[in-house]
Design a protein that fits this description.
By secondary structure, the chain is an alpha/beta fold. Helices cover 31% and strands 26% of the residues. Bound molecules: adenosine-5'-diphosphate (2 copies). InterPro entries: AAA+_ATPase, ABC_transporter-like_ATP-bd, ABC_transporter-like_CS, ABC_transpr_LolD-like, Cell_div_FtsE, P-loop_NTPase.
């Protein structure tokens, strides 16, 4: 599903955020990315959906060699990848329905098809009754559920989540995790950067720890491994 070979990312300020990194992530895996702040986790995952380009090395995602991908082909890559952020990134002036539909409308689906697909995912995340509300009328957990609905509405093979529970209280975080678990059980690969030690140590999955831009640990059913 994702292969990185000798990937290095050096930002224009000279900082080497990812350093000669190799990884292979298989279809259907659930992978936690852990490590201290500034370790390179976000850079590592941003390169998977071409939010950042590597300075050197090869990245293959979903069979696509990203080094051969032209900028105008990036939307085609993104269509097969759902992305979930810590701060949700919902469009504030659009309703719940419209926020989710927005992702589909760019690929010119018919209105009836859009409605069906949007209502399907909103009912999966338990928000069918709030379709007309604006993001500001929802709790943080509900906003994150909308953003998860948006991330999966195109039925991507891969969902990337950068600290999806970072702004949520513990109980809501567990609800969001059950949702991600369910999506993973349906066959979607999930990559999740997190500082949530409770979650990593309880819902066991592969754990990749990054420090100074390098993978320092890679364990199946691993532990969080840091304090706090
Ligand atoms: P993490 O997600 O683990 O906190 P990041 O990937 O965000 O790590 O950052 C890794 C390093 O790269 C840090 O030193 C950070 O300051 C630096 N960095 C991140 N983004 C940029 C950028 N756009 N320009 C320059 N340096 C950056
Ligand atoms: P119901 O018949 O119970 O209203 P529907 O499946 O017809 O159920 O619609 C569910 C909700 O989605 C309704 O509140 C409807 O107004 C809303 N909705 C449907 N299509 C759109 C759209 N294109 N933009 C915004 N809201 C929509």
């Amino acid at each position: 599903m994702i292969e990185m070979q000798k990937v290095t990312k050096k930002y224009s300020n000279g900082i080497i955020a990812v350093n000669d990194l190799n990884i292979n992530i298989k279809h259907g895996e659930f992978l936690y990315v852990v490590g201290p702040s500034g370790a390179g986790k976000s850079t590592f995952i941003k390169m998977m959906y071409r939010e950042e380009k590597p300075t050197t090395g090869n990245i293959i995602v979903n069979g696509i060699d990203l080094s051969k991908l032209k900028n105008k082909q990036v939307p085609y890559l993104r269509r097969n990848i759902g992305v979930v952020f810590q701060d949700f990134k919902l469009l504030p002036t659009l309703t719940v329905f419209e926020n989710v539909a927005f992702a589909l409308e760019v690929i010119e689906q018919r209105p009836a098809e859009i409605k069906k697909l949007v209502m399907e995912v909103l009912s999966l995340v338990g928000l069918k009754h709030k379709v007309r509300m604006l993001p500001t009328e929802l709790s943080g957990g509900e906003q994150q559920r909308v953003s998860i609905a948006r991330s999966i509405v195109n039925k991507p093979k891969l969902v990337i989540a950068d600290e999806p529970t970072g702004n949520l209280d513990p109980e809501t975080s567990w609800e969001i995790m059950s949702l991600l678990e369910e999506i993973n059980l349906q066959g979607t690969t999930i990559i999740m950067a997190t500082h949530n030690r409770e979650i990593v140590n309880t819902i066991k999955h592969r754990v990749v720890a990054i420090e100074n831009g390098r993978i320092v640990r890679d364990e199946q059913r691993g532990e969080y491994g840091y304090e706090g």
